[in-house]
Design a protein that fits this description.
The chain is α+β, with helices and mostly antiparallel strands. It has 13 helices and 25 strands. GO terms for molecular function: flavin adenine dinucleotide binding; oxidoreductase activity, acting on CH-OH group of donors.
């Protein structure tokens, strides 16, 4: 038996939920089917903001695809976790709820690469206003000296509630003092388009509940949007090169009148960690800072990069590293007694030059793909990580922290050799996959055009992080900042589809569900 819809969207992740909702909510009311391999994700406990780290680190969870990389040669042969969430909301239901939109120079570079001004920062900012429902209140008003965004730069009417959390640990302000004592910059709004400096992240948590793409965009779904859960798609059905439908794992065939959209994402960003035992416990959100590193820009590895890459890295809003503080102890490879007081810090590599691969191992969709990110195979990446960890160690040694420091866990000194040894044994992914179906032009061997259409096929598009023409420059280790990019991608794609099919202006009358026996 087969059913027919105007649009079929495969995968109810950050992008899938947005596109399905936006298309279905147009004036012409096309019939839309959103198919998801996982379940509904309605368990209240799993959506609790307080439990967001437990959800991510529950081993072999049925809610997680539980992907692993192949052994990484530069990381003592480790197989790195590459978690992905099953169910409505996708990885917005498993991430750490952090929100960072990245540098404006990223989007302008994106537009240049794909030759489409729709991806410039000014347009991304317009899309962000449709996404953000910004709550500017902070738990410690005295810290307005360091956290004070321009309210006019943010929207209070979008779909995703963004807050500064319900509570902060009392001495969270010490990180800003440490940054100043270290001669670095603070940033009152890391989501202004210029993330350089230490600031406070927003979190997509409101009134104690995680905000996912499903809980926001599908909350009041129109009747012409049908959602099918627990239904993995095994293949796309083609007539010649035109996608006309999909087949599900239980043998159902579902046809599309207009378009069949596929969502998939993989990409690479890296992190290592340095730790000092001071703080009592973790609360939300997380101080995060993005920085330039003169020591990197003076290195042989940096000078060996092609000139266009060096020029981009010199752009004023483009960071080389991120330092995130107050990380949970579950992210480190050490055991601590229950009464241990600690302060954790992670260093993240921005703009990695190492490129990996994702390869299908079988036509059987139940067989996981072979994921080989090839972490730190490029000399530039190794140099940035070494210098970044060294900088994090320097900040942790600032006077405001030194007075209470009992011991340190991490590299035994700040030599290249000791830091590299620490990185090799402790680096892991920030789960921010992208770039596997990159956007561009046919002459540069890209997979999709700037309207998300897959080259060589008809009525088939890829709309998610896989289309990024480069790894987004502002991801975090523990907060899945690339989710903001995924939302922007989806809003842009929905606008292009709505315009292409005239969905806002055209009334087609009722579109009945067609069933064939």
């Amino acid at each position: 038996m087969s059913a027919t819809f105007d649009f079929i969207i495969v995968g109810a992740g950050a992008s899938g939920c947005v596109v399905a909702s936006r298309i279905a909510d147009t004036g012409s009311q096309p019939s839309v089917l959103l198919i998801e391999a996982g379940g509904s994700n309605k368990n209240v406990a799993q959506l609790s903001g307080e439990e967001r780290f437990e959800v991510a680190f529950s081993p072999n969870s049925p809610l997680n695809w539980n992907y692993k990389t192949v052994p990484q040669n530069h990381l003592t042969g480790q197989e790195i976790d590459y978690s992905r969430r099953k169910g409505l909301g996708g990885s917005t239901a498993i991430n750490f709820c952090g929100w960072a939109v990245g540098p404006r120079d990223d989007y302008d570079e994106w537009a240049r690469i794909v030759k489409d001004d729709a991806f410039k920062w000014y347009n991304a900012k317009r899309c962000l206003r449709k996404i953000e429902n910004f709550h500017p209140e902070i738990p410690i008003p005295e810290l307005r000296e360091y956290i004070d965004p321009n309210i006019g730069d943010h929207s209070a009417s979008g779909m995703i509630d963004l807050t500064y959390g319900d509570s902060w640990i009392p001495d969270v302000g010490d990180i800003f003092k440490a940054i100043e004592e270290s001669g670095l910059r603070t940033n009152k709004d890391i989501n202004s388009g210029d993330p350089i400096g230490m600031g406070m992240s927003n979190v997509c948590i409101h009134k104690g509940e995680r905000i996912t793409s499903a809980s926001s965009y599908l909350r009041n779904k129109p009747s012409n949007l049908k959602i099918l859960t627990d239904s993995g798609v095994t293949r796309i059905i083609f007539e010649s090169k035109r996608a006309i439908g999909v087949q599900t794992i239980d043998g159902k065939t579902i046809l599309a009148r207009k378009e069949d959209h596929c969502f998939s994402s993989v990409g690479i960003v890296m992190k290592a960690k340095s730790r000092d035992q001071i703080q009592p416990h973790l609360q939300n959100p997380t101080p995060m800072g993005w920085f330039k590193l003169p020591s990197v820009q003076a290195s042989n590895e940096y000078r060996a990069l092609p000139l266009p890459k060096r020029q981009f890295l010199q752009a004023s809003t483009v960071p080389l590293i991120e330092i995130a503080k107050h990380i949970p102890p579950s992210l480190v490879s050490y055991e601590m007694s229950p009464d241990t007081r600690f302060l954790g810090a992670m260093c993240l590599l921005m703009n990695p030059q190492s490129l990996g691969t994702v390869v299908l191992q079988s036509a059987d969709p139940s067989i996981a793909p072979k994921i080989d990110p090839q972490f730190l195979t490029h000399g530039y990446d190794r140099r940035v990580m070494i210098e970044g960890v060294r900088e994090a160690m320097r900040v942790l040694s600032a006077p405001v922290y030194a007075v209470d420091t009992i011991d340190k866990v991490g590299p035994t000194d700040d030599s290249d050799e000791e830091i590299w040894k620490h990185i090799r044994g402790n680096l892991f992914s920030s789960w921010h996959m992208s770039y596997t179906a990159r956007m561009g032009t046919p002459i540069d061997s890209a997979c999709v055009d700037s309207s998300f259409r897959i080259f060589g096929l008809q009525s088939c598009r890829a709309i998610d992080l896989s289309v990024c023409p480069f790894v987004p420059k502002c991801p975090s280790p523990i907060s899945n900042h690339t989710q903001s990019t995924a939302y922007v991608i989806a809003e842009m794609a929905a606008e292009k589809l709505i315009a292409e099919y005239g969905l806002q202006s055209r009334k087609e009358g009722s579109m009945k569900l067609v069933t064939k026996l």
